[in-house]
From TrEMBL:
It catalyses: (R)-pantoate + NADP(+) = 2-dehydropantoate + NADPH + H(+). GO terms for cellular component: cytoplasm. It comes from Labedaea rhizosphaerae. Belongs to the ketopantoate reductase family. Residues 4-152 form the Ketopantoate reductase N-terminal domain. Residues 178-299 form the Ketopantoate reductase C-terminal domain. This is 2-dehydropantoate 2-reductase. Pfam families: ApbA, ApbA_C. NCBIfam families: apbA_panE.
Length: 311
């Protein structure tokens, strides 16, 4: 199948590279210095699962030059969603799927509105990967999982074919029969993990070990559960307890991509994570003070490291 990676960053670059390495037909969309490096030196991945180098990849900043795709793997940061969605329109044929591995729960609403619901396949990913320098993706540990599925729960030909390609490429992949719930399940955990690791500026270990930050983490996740349930997502009422038990099983040094971005002075996705929970809670009449606090505290950093004005 013809795959196009829209946004060759930590997520798109890692999974696209694994698929290309396995011999699948993958084209990449990138920009800036990263694009230049990918053109000049190819795509490198540094990973505990094995480094790889693809010296010659099909890469462009203009998706319109790539012809039709069978599946677009959508991996831009959330603030770039609208622009990137417009750019991929020329890739769409009648049966083309677009699967976003972005975080958050609003991404597919944006894609549906711009591209049409028939093109949108739901997805989440579990990985810690970043652009280490132009042309080089660094994978931090051995986690590299994709979960995806059609919103109507059927196993379509495009979903099955992508699953087969992932398995062939050594990617841990799973088809979900209830992808909306799968996305919200990850969202509950991610909002807790990203909110706490970023505001505390520490990995999860000390946060879960301290009774006060542990209780706050539970409250953050519980607010997401309440919002989800109010919107009709079938999460159990005690799902935050389940996620807290899950938090106890992850490595103590685990952190979030948002914490990484904060430490590097990058723009933050907080408005689409805790901020989105607070906005939805307000609209639904559900109190979300913990998520509101995270959004308000991180607002100072949400556009990147604030400059210091000489006084
Ligand atoms: N990194 C991770 O480990 C994980 C990330 N996620 C989620 O995945 C999504 C992507 O994150 P991540 O991979 O870290 O992001 P990155 O910033 O590493 O990668 C995104 C890339 O897409 C490029 N890009 C954006 N818009 C365009 C465009 N219109 N044309 C060409 N290139 C474009 C960016 O360029 P530029 O730098 O110039 O903006 C950047 O190189 C986010 O929603 C994130 O939350 C989910 C799980 C784990
Ligand atoms: C929870 C995690 C680390 C899993 O991929 C993630 O999605 C993120 O930090 O953005």
């Amino acid at each position: 199948m013809r795959l196009v990676v829209m946004g060759t960053g930590g997520v798109g670059g890692y999974f696209g590279a694994r698929l290309a390495e396995a011999g699948h037909d993958v084209a990449f969309v990138a920009r800036g210095r990263h694009l230049e490096a990918l053109r000049d030196k190819g795509l490198r991945v540094q990973s505990p699962l094995g480094d790889l180098h693809l010296p010659h990849i099909e890469v462009t900043d203009d998706p319109a030059t790539l012809g039709q795709a069978d599946l677009v793997l959508f991996g831009v940061k959330l603030w770039d969603t609208e622009g990137a969605a417009e750019q991929i329109k020329p890739l769409l044929g009648t049966h083309t799927g677009v699967v976003s591995f972005q975080n958050g729960v609003v991404k597919d609403d944006i894609l549906r509105a711009r591209l049409g619901a028939e093109h949108v396949v739901g997805g989440v990913c579990y990985i810690a990967a970043t652009i280490a320098e132009p042309g080089i993706i660094r994978h931090a540990n051995t986690l590299q999982k994709l979960v995806f599925g059609e919103y109507d729960g059927t196993t379509s030909q495009r979903v099955q074919a992508f699953h087969d390609a992932c398995v062939d490429a050594g990617i841990d992949a799973e088809i979900s029969a209830d992808i909306e719930r799968t996305i919200w399940e990850k969202f509950v955990f991610l909002v807790g993990l990203s909110g706490l690791t970023s505001t505390v500026r520490a990995p999860i270990g000390p946060i879960r070990d301290n009774p006060r930050s542990r209780a706050f983490l539970h409250d953050v996740m519980d607010e997401v559960v309440r919002v989800a349930r109010a919107q009709g997502v079938s999460l159990p009422a005690d799902y935050a307890d389940d996620r807290l038990a899950f938090v106890d099983q992850v490595p103590a040094d685990m952190t979030s991509s948002m914490h990484f971005d904060l430490e590097h002075g990058n723009r933050l996705e907080v408005a689409w994570l805790s901020g989105d929970v607070a906005d939805r809670g307000k609209a639904l009449g559900i109190p979300t003070p913990a998520n509101r606090a995270i959004m308000d505290l991180l607002a100072v950093h949400s556009d990147g490291r604030p400059g210091v004005t000489a006084g």
